[in-house]
Amino acid sequence: MVILGIDPGIAIVGYGIIKYEGNKFTVIDYGAVTTAPSMSLPERLKVIYRETEGLIDTYHPDVVTVEELFFNKNVKTALTVGHGRGVAILAAANKGLNIYEYTPLQVKQSVVGYGRAEKAQVQQMVKVILSLTAVPKPDDVADALAVAVCHAHSANMNNRLRHGYI
Predict the structure, then answer these.
(1) Is 67 noted as a catalytic residue in this protein?
(2) Which of 49, 76, 86, 104 is the most buried (most CB within 10 A)?
(3) Can you list the domains of the chain with their CATH numbers?
(4) Is 62 one of the catalytic residues?
(5) Residue 46: exposed, middle, or buried by beta-carbon count in 10 A (0-12, 13-18, 19+)?
């Protein structure tokens, strides 16, 4: 299964593409889509949409996973990030892909084993689980890989339940 993980944003959208097969992870690609603050909101959203669509066309993921928003005290920021999240989801939906959403707590629980883990712990575990030489930067990229790993673990657990192994 090829998984595209997305950490939504407006200035930086982290993405990570991994393959999960037989309890083994292979990193295919990761990085960030960035938009400049000088751009209008519609221009920024177009960039996020086009780049997300391009990732899907290039890597043909089986599923797309997106981190749910953590409510920010700054409502304007939360709404703007929500717009970026929405166009990334729309790009995946328009390509006919299944989209799975995970809360930060679910991602931390899956990757670290503790839902209240610190960001640095999650990043370090992403590095270890995916056999990377360094923690991916910026943080949004590590977060996108973490949400992809979370889905792999979740899908594996659901498969084991479905087949009576648990």
Answers:
(1) yes
(2) 104
(3) 2-162 (3.30.420.10)
(4) no
(5) middle
Catalytic residue among 21, 51, 62, 67: 67
Whole-number pLDDT of residue 29: 98
**pLDDT over threshold 90, residue 116:** no
Percent of the chain at pLDDT exceeding 70: 91
Among 81, 65, 55, smallest CA distance to 3 is for 65
Instruction: Report the 10 Å Cβ neighbour count for 67.
Output: 24
CA nearest 84: which of 34, 123, 25, 155? Answer: 34
Does 7 qualify as catalytic in the annotation? yes
Taking the CB of residue 56, how many other CB atoms lie within 10 A of it? 19
Kindly name the residue from 7, 51, 53, 118 that is annotated as catalytic.
7
Q: What is the pTM of this model?
A: 0.91
